[in-house]
Amino acid sequence: MEQRIERIKKQLHSQSYKLTPQREATVRVLLENEDDHLSAEDVYMLVKEKYPEIGLATVYRTLELLTELKIVDKINFGDGVSRYDLRQEGANHFHHHLVCIECGAVDEIQEDLLDDVEKVVESRWNFQIKDHRLTFHGICYRCQ
Ligand SMILES: [Zn+2]
Ligand SMILES: [Zn+2]
Ligand SMILES: [Zn+2]
């Protein structure tokens, strides 16, 4: 955890941003809840437990900054709520999601599996792909 915070700090510094205590508290909440897909409100409620004086706008700006620096990815599962998801370190693409239509659980696939699809799209549409989002909607193994 501390090492990851150190690395995130360096990433911020390299773009001339500081890891202020409020930003650090936000990053810690994301790390502590890495398996979850928290909305800005969720993050805010958790940060507030340690920093009661922090405002939603500050948390929101930090999340936007982390998104810009590609430390987190912003994702929407179709319910109109933006969620923030830590990027795997060293990942050159955003992981995929399995969203259960019964219980709402969100599981992750770190493996990419889409190299062939990307090649087809790049050549047929002459489109330079930088990344992609992939969400499967279905019934998870727990609900089957
Ligand atoms: Zn995820
Ligand atoms: Zn389920
Ligand atoms: Zn992928």
Automatic annotation (TrEMBL):
Q: Which cofactor does it need?
A: Zn(2+); Mn(2+); Fe(2+)
Does Lipoprotein show up as a keyword for this record? no
User: Could you tell me what this protein is called?
Assistant: Ferric uptake regulator, Fur family
The record's family statement is:
Belongs to the Fur family.
Name the Pfam families for this protein. FUR
InterPro entries linked: FUR, Fur_C, WH-like_DNA-bd_sf, WH_DNA-bd_sf
Cofactor binding mode and count? Binds 1 zinc ion per subunit. Binds 1 Mn(2+) or Fe(2+) ion per subunit.
Q: Which organism is it from?
A: Bacillus selenitireducens (strain ATCC 700615 / DSM 15326 / MLS10)
**Domain of life of the source:** Bacteria
Q: Name one GO biological process term.
A: negative regulation of DNA-templated transcription
Which GO MF terms are attached to this record?
DNA-binding transcription factor activity; transcription cis-regulatory region binding; zinc ion binding
The protein's UniProt keywords, in alphabetical order, are:
DNA-binding, Iron, Metal-binding, Repressor, Transcription, Transcription regulation, Zinc
User: Per the UniProt record, which residue ranges are transmembrane?
Assistant: none
Q: Which residues bind Zn(2+)?
A: 100, 103, 140, 143
